[in-house]
Design brief:
The structure is a single chain. This protein has about 100 residues and is an all-alpha fold. It has one domain. The relative contact order is 0.16.
Amino acid sequence: MTETAFGNRDPHFMIEIIALWEPDDTRAAEHRAWAGDLAAALDPVALPGGYPNLLGPDEATQIAHAYGPNTEHLLAVKRHYDPDHVFRAIPLPDPSRTR
């Protein structure tokens, strides 16, 4: 759907993988592996790039993939309604393109 800035209107589940452990836990590598293995298992059915609200600002490739063909529309809306870049909690494909 290209009529809106957020193009994915297909039914989907949102799963956030969270793994926590104490700093002195000797199984930290095992916990990281569990989270990584689960993410890899879900990858074939996951949204391309991930859900934008859950992406960090340093995940440029995933951010660009998440918005896909609607990137330019989203950035145009951002330039129009937020030219001073006040709203920046949700990462955009390339924030410098909103200026």
